[in-house]
Write a structure and sequence with these properties.
This protein is of the alpha+beta class and about 325 residues long. About 25% of the residues lie in helices and about 15% in strands. It contains 7 helices and 11 strands. A hairpin with a 2-residue loop joins strand 10 and strand 11. Belongs to the galactose-1-phosphate uridylyltransferase type 1 family.
Length: about 325
């Protein structure tokens, strides 16, 4: 961190995004690539991805001709969910009721797609730095006929901990972090946000419920309201860190679905990951290269340092503060 930076300087995110752009395929009333016209929606809006990575009728490649060359059909569906009709707003600037609507829709997606697919991945790539090609507030949902690598590893480790210790690993982890406090960023009655003990990205965080919960669809109304509140607090702090619309990739991990709905998945605990790339400023990011790709990830600052910096930031968004609004407010 002390070494003078002579590497790549990132372009800061665009601040003057138009509220509605007729050529933006995510805006209300706009025409998308497949020719369909979006309704003039006023809340969330869901549609099938026009360029899906997974398709329900993907062909089976058949048996391989060598043990080193094996493949199976990857079937599924890909959807896009717009959070809000405005392009110039992000989750931390939305009203709590609007964020809760997003959460409710996420839970409905688990109920809709879960019975058919073993894994339903909800994720948001925010900012061009994280590969997002459209500034309109949205996330993606990929439901797959198989359990992908990361959740498969998570399932195995949580299951092993359950068998060895008789406790749900992430429930115990949340309890420990709540007592220790040094890596806690924000917390409320139902949720806890920490910079994980094992964090490798500079301001990486993990969002955990205090109660044992398997999936988003299992959350109570009170837990969803509290989730909206803590998401707003966390994302406001992220934006306030460098006073920029903070880029990140985030996603939810919950107990697998599909055939796993008939199994005991008590070893699982619902949680969300946030992976932001920024390190020193709004224009200097962390690069996972060289030794980190080939040997072991390295920390640029400790989880405790990152948590303290985030924890000490105000909970009023810098844009709202400049306009004299409270943390409950919404961009106008």
């Amino acid at each position: 961190m002390k070494r003078p930076w002579q590497g790549q300087i990132e372009r800061p995110p665009e601040e003057n995004v138009p509220r509605h752009e007729p050529t933006n395929p995510l805006c209300p009333g706009s025409r998308r690539a497949n020719g369909e016209v979006n309704p003039k929606y006023e809340s969330t809006f869901m549609f099938d991805n026009d360029y899906p990575a997974l398709q329900p009728d993907a062909p089976d490649p058949g048996p391989g001709d060598h043990p080193l060359f094996q493949a199976k059909a990857a079937k599924g569906v890909c959807k896009v969910m717009c959070f809000h009709p405005w392009s110039d707003i992000t989750l931390p600037l939305m009203q709590l009721s609007e964020i809760k609507t997003v959460i409710d829709r996420w839970a409905e997606l688990i109920e809709e797609l879960g019975p058919k697919y073993p894994w339903v991945q909800i994720f948001e790539n925010k900012g061009a730095m994280m590969g997002c090609s459209n500034p309109h507030p949205h996330c993606q949902v990929w439901a797959s006929s198989f359990l992908p690598n990361e959740p498969d590893l998570a399932d195995g480790h949580q299951r092993a901990h359950w068998k060895t210790h008789g406790e749900v690993m992430l429930v115990e982890y949340a309890r420990q972090e709540a007592v220790r406090k040094e890596r806690v960023v924000v917390e409320n009655e139902h949720w806890l946000v920490v910079v994980p003990y094992w964090a490798s990205w500079p301001f990486q965080t993990m969002l955990l419920p205090r109660r044992h919960v398997l999936r988003l669809s299992d959350l109570t109304a009170q837990e969803r309201e509290a989730l909206a509140s803590i998401m707003k607090m966390l994302l406001t702090k992220y934006d306030n860190l460098f006073e920029v619309s903070f880029p990140y990739s985030m996603g939810w991990h919950g107990a697998p679905t599909g055939p796993y709905l008939q199994e005991d998945m008590s070893h699982w605990q619902l949680h969300a990951h946030y992976y932001p790339p920024l390190l020193r400023s709004a224009s200097v990011r962390k690069f996972m290269v060289g030794y980190e790709m080939l040997a072991l990830e390295q920390r640029d600052l400790t989880p405790e340092q990152a948590a303290e910096r985030l924890r000490n930031l105000p909970e009023v968004h810098y844009k709202d503060k400049a306009k004299g609004r409270t943390a409950e407010g919404q961009g106008e």
